[in-house]
Amino acid sequence: MAYEIPVTQARAELAELINRVVYGGERVVVTRHGKPLVALVSAADLERLEALGEPGEEQVIGSVAAVREVAPAAAPEHRRFGIVAEHRGPNPS
What we know:
The protein is an alpha+beta fold. The protein is built from 5 helices and 3 strands, in the order βααββααα. The chain is flat and about 50 Å long. The model has no long low-confidence stretch (mean pLDDT 75). It has helices at residues 7-12, 14-24, 43-51, 57-66, 76-81; strands at residues 3-6, 28-32, 35-40. The chain folds into 2 domains: 3-51, YefM-like domain (YefM-like fold), CATH 3.40.1620.10; 55-93, no CATH class.
């Protein structure tokens, strides 16, 4: 579970947050208006994420092009992090 903190508070406590991540093994999610903006993770966590591999550009483009509409029953993590995509086609209205 990540520790969430508003961006205004994170700005004032950056050094402490870095220590929590590095020495406490925590993950910190910085929010604005209650919505996650960025996450502070250790360099080791970042290496593990990068080792998982990033999808190729073709996969991302294909995935975005395949989205027809915003699904009302989105996965819980999508609702939590506000991840939504909408494909409008060549003539957006």
